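Hey L., structure's done. Input below.
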Amino acid sequence: MTGLLVLCVFAVVFNDISASTEVCTNTLLPGAKGDQGEIGEEGDQGKLGKNGPPGLPGLSGEMGLEGDVGHTGKMGPIGDKGNKGDTGLEGPSGLKGKPGTTCDCGRYRKVVGQLDVNVGKLRKAVKFVKNVILGLKETEERYYLLVKEPKRFREALINCKLRGGTLAMPKTSNTNRLMADYVSQAGLTRVYVGLQAQSKDTVGTSGYVYADSSPLQGFAAWSQEEELNSRVSPTTNSSCVELLSTGTWSYVECEATLFFICEFPKSRRRGGSGGGGN
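Output:
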């Protein structure tokens, strides 16, 4: 019985070997799908991957609490001056002052009156000194002094400057008339005035200038004969001007010796200047 069983098994195995030999090829055929196995244990954590793209912005959060006051900043630049404000309300009246003392006005009036008399006498004395002793003439702006010392033109300029003035300049008809009368009353016929021919400049022009370097323009008192010559520009600075007692001007060589008139500006007055033009 046992031998028979072994024989049968051998036959089956032999048949399987023979059959598999007959159908063997180079292709491996998968077997049937097996049953699902059991779930294994959790593996180790993997490596950190690359950063993904940024997400969309989130919604604005709620406003936070107000912070503490910061440090005081630097002072800014000074602003423009503002407009004047409205007048304020009138303040209360002050307290009544103490009564004054009785004044002896009669005595003070007498002193003031005597001062007025003394001032009047002093003014007359000054006028006498100016007009009689010194022989000064004056306008609202200037004093004029006739110097009876024969000098050349340049010497006359220096002499007036040393006296604190300048050689007189008849820039207006009124001043010219005053100076001419001054010459006539002194019994003279002509004097130097501060007007001289100017040398040609770089441009080639020339003319007459006053002692203060201002050009001759506007008023002029040339005689009829000199009027024609005055239209021709002078060619040398040796030509000076003399004032005649008639009030007209004439040419004279600067080397001639003549009397002359100096002028002096008056002192500045309060509230304005007394050193205006002629």
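The two ends are 175 Å apart (CA to CA). The longest strand covers residues 142-151.

-- N.
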